Amino acid sequence: MSEETNGRNILDVAMELTKIHLRSWGVSDSDELKKVYTEYYSLVKAVGNKQGRNLYDFLPEEIISKFKGE
To answer: What's the whole-model pTM score?
Structure first.
């Protein structure tokens, strides 16, 4: 049985985030791809059903800086 968040499968959400990451920043090899997917899976698992305004604190500084263009 797969876990869901807001009716969506955690694995699917992590995969969607990974695809966005790949389109935006790419990865250098399969090990980096594994790391990226694992980080997004962990993020989705951790935030669960929390409200959107409370999620910013869960983002790693590395991802925040990418969104800010640093």
So the answer is: 0.66
